[in-house]
């Protein structure tokens, strides 16, 4: 995915088109982390997404949580790391930890 894509602009465009949207943001990293703090991923209610919070290794889990946040309206803080059994399930075996905050964007 191109770094030139403006995640926030795309999320705003989706909202303007009447779609419900969630935004995931990397808020904490430790050790070897695929993406730096501040990296973002926007997801619309159909599961389309732009941006990246992990370079792919946890993206599927984050997209699922984003869709849940869109449906429920409840934000969530996700933790992934090599000591977390879920991290192995989603492929985060890089030796680091990452926290991702997921929230529904309300217009």
Could you describe the 3D structure shown?
The protein is an alpha+beta fold. The chain has one domain. The chain is 28% helix and 31% strand. It contains 3 helices and 5 strands; from the N terminus they run H-E-E-E-H-E-H-E. It has helices at 7-16, 59-72, 85-90, and strands at 21-30, 40-44, 49-51, 76-81, 97-105. The chain has a 5-stranded antiparallel beta sheet, sandwiched between helices. A hairpin with a 4-residue loop joins strand 2 (40-44) and strand 3.
Task: Determine the N-to-C terminus distance.
Answer: 26 Å
> What is the domain total for the residues?
1
Helix content range = 25-40%
Strand content: 25-35%
Tell me the overall shape.
globular
Please compute the radius of gyration using only Cα atoms: 13 Å
Mean pLDDT: 86
Number of beta-strand segments? 5
Give a nutshell description of this structure:
With 107 residues, this protein is of the alpha+beta class. It is 28% helix and 31% strand. It has helices spanning 7-16, 59-72, 85-90; strands spanning 21-30, 40-44, 49-51, 76-81, 97-105.
């Amino acid at each position: 995915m191109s770094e030139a894509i403006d995640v926030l602009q795309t999320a705003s465009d989706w909202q303007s088109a009447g779609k419900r949207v969630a935004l995931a943001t990397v808020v904490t990293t430790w050790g070897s982390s695929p993406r730096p703090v501040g990296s973002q991923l926007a997801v619309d209610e159909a599961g389309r997404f732009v941006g990246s919070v992990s370079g792919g290794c946890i993206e599927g889990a984050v997209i699922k949580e984003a869709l849940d946040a869109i449906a429920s309206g409840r934000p969530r803080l996700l933790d992934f790391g090599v000591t977390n059994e879920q991290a192995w399930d989603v492929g985060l075996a890089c030796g680091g930890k990452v926290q991702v905050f997921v929230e529904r964007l309300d217009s």
